Amino acid sequence: MLPEPETNAAYAKYQAMRRKDQVFELFYKYGLYIVLAALIIAFSQFNQNFVSQDNIMNILRQTASTGIAAAGLVFVMVTGGIDVSMGSIIYMTAVIAATLANSGMGLLGAFAVSLLSGAAVGAVNGIFIAKLKVAPLIVTLAMLYVIRGLSISVVGIKPIFFNNDVGAILTKTYLFGFLPVIVVVLIVVMAVSQLLLTKSVWGRQLFAIGNNRQAAEVLGIKVNRNVFFSYLVCGAFAGLSGLISGVQVGGIPPIFAQGTEFIIICAVVLGGVSLFGGRGSAFPGAFIGVVIIMVIENGLVMARANMYMYTVVRGIVIFAAVYLNSVQNKGELR
Q1: Residue 303 vs residue 331, higher pLDDT
Q2: What angle (nearest 5°) sits at the alpha carbon of residue 196, between those of residues 195 and 197?
Q3: Which of 105, 181, 250, 257 is deepest in the core (most CB within 10 A)?
Q4: What distance in Å separates the CA atoms of residue 91 and residue 152, rounded to the nearest whole number?
């Protein structure tokens, strides 16, 4: 007996939907690497030096400060939160580190001050969000203006410069003769972040909170405490990013790192970290997201593109990242 035509049509539709889902799953799994490879091939056509060892190291140096901050943001975003104050934290800690280093503070002191200063701001964010239940976007947006305003009121509008050994050590020291020390810092931060997220009880609890906050509370997870520490870590890594980016540019004007928070958020979302919480990784996810953005910016510079194209392309990347994230989470139960 032949099957009914309606049955054949339904089966064919099912198979088509299944193939579509498989293609989407494949792209979701390997899409970042495909996009990165395509960008490298495309930009190398405009300038053969794009794939040179010197330029690859230059891209990694550019990735360092943004990548460190992105690793911290992953801890917040997997809980379903957000932090848009990172740009101001980066500026504040760069100013503090430069000022103290110019007064004679050494490298270890600069690292400690940057981490602690950023962590202090992150702790304030965490108190308002976790304890007082204020919306993360409102708290961190307010902190974005407060921190930058306070910093400028203290140091003034003149640029602060890294006229000290700290800047020279971080920018001119290489391991094994070719690996910049700031790239080593990035590697360590990414490795520690990924280990904490995947191998520690705290990391698994953060994912549980992002997937279902109420269920996490029922299971006995201390949600408020975990969320608080996620913002503290995010602030600490933003502080470290401030030190790294500050020594790279040398001079720190009042507009330093302004808007950087949106580049960091874009990179993290592009790397597969969900805006809805419960999914993502520091490495390779957020790391690859940052690399893609830096490759685009570096490639446009080497291709001598119009300077206004940077903001246009950046906007397109942000839109694409958010759109793909929304599609991936469509229909999920949160």
Answers
A1: 303
A2: 90
A3: 257
A4: 10
Helices and strands in the chain: count of H runs, count of E runs: 13, 4
The tens digit of pLDDT for each residue in 58-80 reads 999 999 999 999 999 999 999 99
Q: What are phi and psi of 251, to 5 degrees?
A: -100, 135
Domain boundaries, the chain: 48-327
Is domain 48-327 in CATH 1.10.3470.10, yes or no? yes
Question: Which residue(s) pair with 179 in the sheet?
Answer: 175
Residue 300, phi then psi, degrees to nearest 5: -65, -40
The answer to whether the bond into 284 is cis (omega within 30° of 0) is yes
- The Cβ-side half-sphere exposure at 316, using a 13 Å CA radius, reads 8
Cα distance between residue 240 and residue 283, in whole Å:
18
Helix, strand, or coil here: 252?
A: strand
Q: Residues with Cβ < 8 Å from 100, sequence gap 6 or more?
A: 109, 110, 113
pLDDT by residue (tens digit) across 213-260?
Answer: 999 999 999 999 999 999 999 999 999 999 999 999 988 999 999 999
265-321 tens-digit pLDDT: 989 988 889 888 898 999 999 999 999 999 998 998 888 888 777 778 777 877 777
Q: Could you give the 3-state DSSP secondary structure of residue 175?
A: strand
Where residue 250 falls (left for φ over 0; alpha for ψ -120 to 50; beta otherwise) is: left
- Which pTM value belongs to this model? 0.89
CA 75 – CA 230 distance, rounded (Å)? 5
Q: Which one-letter amino acid corresponds to residue 321?
A: A
What is the C-alpha to C-alpha distance for residues 218 and 112, in angstroms, rounded to an integer? Answer: 37
One-letter amino acid at 11 equals Y
Structure tokens at 267: 């990179």
